[in-house]
Design a protein that fits this description.
Blueprint: E1 4-7, H1 33-43, E2 52-55, H2 63-75, E3 82-86, H3 98-101, E4 106-110, H4 119-132, E5 137-141, E6 148-151, E7 166-167, E8 172-174, H5 177-180, H6 191-196, E9 201-203, H7 209-216, E10 226-229, H8 249-257
Parallel strand pairs: 1-2, 2-3, 3-4, 4-5
Antiparallel strand pairs: 6-10, 7-8, 8-9
Helix pairs in contact: 1-2
Length: 266
């Protein structure tokens, strides 16, 4: 797998409208490594991940268990790279989290208007942390607007976002966080999407390397009823860029001159 996400918590201390994890309305739920251990061990028998993204909700709300999750994920051997996706609320108090920071490889920080810290200050702090803790990558995302989730009554041909599989605590892997967290009813889905949503879940204990690879590498009918776009997708109305691709200004200019891509983006 290119990557897989797991939740440290379901909830968040910010309220991004349209959060793809429904964290703005999710009830408080704190996870431990034990919630994921058997699933990660089973999954690691037939796949690996370039990175595991510990996210939420806001993962640093679970300070008590976050270090255990990070260490435990790495110990299973399923990945060599552990990333934490965070809103960065804790950055001014980073000393409190030093033990956790020592065991993280990289950050993905999404800036929210509720922050009491400027993007420039976030960059200054993270530059310092990157050097101090030898982090190999920090990405700071400052959106002009937050992700939109759109659902269709009829199937709609479109370029799909890259796969963001989500390990659920019940022993399944969701094709994406949209499918995984519609359980909170945070999205205005369609009946068609709900009827087909089961396609987006894979039971770890009923599968093997071959069946998981087939499931992971292919999109299903349910994906034609879901559109998940963010600001990078809106460069041109007809252009769809996977929401988890980080583009430089030069790459954006190149894409503007290209014809829209069709089919599955792997």
């Amino acid at each position: 797998m290119r990557m897989m996400q797991i939740h440290s918590v379901d909830h968040c201390n910010f309220s991004c409208k349209g959060c793809s994890h429904s964290s703005d309305i999710a009830p408080k739920k704190f996870f431990t490594f034990e919630d994921y251990k058997p699933h990660l061990e089973k999954l690691s028998e037939y796949t690996t991940a370039e990175r595991i993204d510990v996210t939420g909700g806001e993962p640093f709300l679970n300070k008590k268990n976050l270090l255990g999750i990070i260490k435990g994920v790495r110990a299973t051997g399923i990945t060599k790279t552990v990333e934490v996706a965070t809103n960065g609320f804790w950055l001014k108090m980073w000393e409190r989290y030093s033990e956790i920071l020592e065991h993280i490889d990289q950050f993905y920080i999404t800036y929210h208007p509720e922050q009491k810290i400027s993007p420039r200050e976030i960059r200054d702090i993270t530059d310092m942390l990157q050097e101090k803790f030898k982090l190999n990558f920090i990405y700071i995302y400052v959106p002009k607007w937050f992700n939109e989730v759109e659902f269709f009554e009829k199937p709609k041909p479109r370029d799909h976002c890259k796969f963001c599989p989500q390990l659920m605590s019940n022993g399944t892997v969701a094709k994406c966080n949209i499918i995984g967290y519609t359980k909170f009813n945070g999205f205005n889905t369609t009946k068609q999407f709900e009827d087909l949503k089961h396609q987006g879940f894979y039971d770890i204990y009923s599968g093997n390397a071959k069946t998981f690879a087939e499931w992971h590498d292919n999109l299903f009918e349910v994906c034609d009823y879901c559109g998940f776009y963010d600001e990078q997708d809106k460069i041109k109305p007809e252009l769809r860029i996977p929401h988890n691709v980080h583009l430089t200004e030069e790459e954006v200019n190149i894409l503007k001159k290209e014809k829209p891509r069709k089919g599955i983006l792997g």
